[in-house]
């Protein structure tokens, strides 16, 4: 049975969550009136920071892949955190952990990037089974972090479908303290439970593969519009990368215009959803 989370406002949904990172994201969305997340996939610190400063006012969340930054250092993390305070956004390192519990705990806490020390949210592939959640939560839970499981992907030919998706949602239901939601292409409500059961789990769905001008790229990416994602598919956050900064990360005026455009499209779709 379909529960009513999709018609609740982000503000109302804060009370459905105990995890601090989930609460922070919903509070930020409600306060700034935006469900836009920008994925900053560039290789130079200078471009990374310029994009974040330009899109900061329009986003609830900044998604990073810090392992692609060629001149990475801890100062960059300090600058990212300062922007997170200045512009009021949540940080999500899109690390896609996928190993045994012991290894992911080390990857999350240690190494060059020390992700757990600064990223409010991170994510994992459910492929190893529940032990990946135990490994990551041993590090992240005491720090108030949250985890997203990848239950679906935006790419052509993805294997994350059917019973894989269902089992992954079941894994999440068994770890509600740390798993705050999913990277997926639609609402996961009612998935992995019997059809006549009321679904009391309010998971957040963050959705990449969003573009207003292109249908995809030459490497399997597939785009849908904010309206398809938020209104028609019941997702909560649109994640946009190249649709906002295109091929020229230094053109900040153009980036601002695009960020505002996506923010407005995402919010309009959400308003239509909660008022329907
Ligand atoms: P873009 O909007 O430029 O296509 O970027 C999408 C971003 O979302 C990338 O950082 C990619 O790693 C991520 N992503 C995705 O595109 N599809 C998924 O299913 C999961 C992702 O994390």
Automatic annotation (TrEMBL):
Substrate binds at residues 41, 63, 154, 221, 241-242. It holds the Pfam family OMPdecase. Signal peptide: none annotated. GO terms for biological process: 'de novo' pyrimidine nucleobase biosynthetic process; 'de novo' UMP biosynthetic process. It comes from the Eukaryota. Pathway: Pyrimidine metabolism; UMP biosynthesis via de novo pathway; UMP from orotate: step 2/2. Its EC number is 4.1.1.23. It catalyses: orotidine 5'-phosphate + H(+) = UMP + CO2. The active site is at residues 94, 96, 99. Residues 35-255 form the Orotidine 5'-phosphate decarboxylase domain. One of its GO terms (molecular function) is orotate phosphoribosyltransferase activity. Belongs to the OMP decarboxylase family. This is Orotidine 5'-phosphate decarboxylase. It comes from Lentinula aciculospora.
């Amino acid at each position: 049975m379909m529960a009513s989370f999709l018609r609740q406002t982000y503000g109302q949904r804060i009370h459905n969550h105990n995890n601090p990172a989930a609460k922070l994201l919903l509070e930020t969305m409600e306060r700034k009136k935006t469900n836009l997340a920008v994925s900053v996939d560039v290789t130079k610190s200078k471009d990374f920071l310029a994009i974040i400063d330009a899109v900061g006012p329009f986003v609830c969340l900044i998604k990073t892949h810090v392992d692609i930054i060629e001149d990475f250092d801890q100062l960059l993390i300090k600058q990212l955190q300062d922007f997170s305070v200045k512009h009021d956004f949540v940080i999500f390192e899109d690390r896609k952990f996928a190993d045994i519990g012991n290894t992911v705990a080390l990857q999350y806490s240690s190494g060059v990037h020390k992700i757990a020390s600064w990223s409010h949210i991170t994510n994992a592939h459910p492929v190893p089974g529940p032990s990946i959640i135990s490994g990551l939560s041993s590090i992240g839970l005491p720090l108030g972090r949250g985890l997203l499981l990848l239950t679906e992907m935006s790419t052509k030919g993805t294997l994350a479908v059917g019973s894989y998706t269902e089992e992954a949602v079941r894994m999440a239901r068994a770890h509600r303290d740390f798993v705050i939601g999913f990277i997926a292409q639609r609402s996961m409500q009612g998935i992995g439970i019997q059809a006549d059961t009321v679904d009391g789990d309010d998971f957040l769905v963050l959705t990449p593969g969003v573009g207003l001008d292109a249908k995809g790229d030459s490497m399997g990416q597939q785009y849908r519009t904010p309206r398809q994602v938020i209104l028609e598919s019941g997702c909560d956050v649109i994640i946009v990368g190249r649709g906002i900064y295109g091929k020229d990360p230094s053109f900040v005026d153009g980036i601002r215009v695009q960020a505002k455009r996506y923010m407005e499209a995402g919010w309009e779709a959400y308003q239509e959803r909660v008022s329907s």
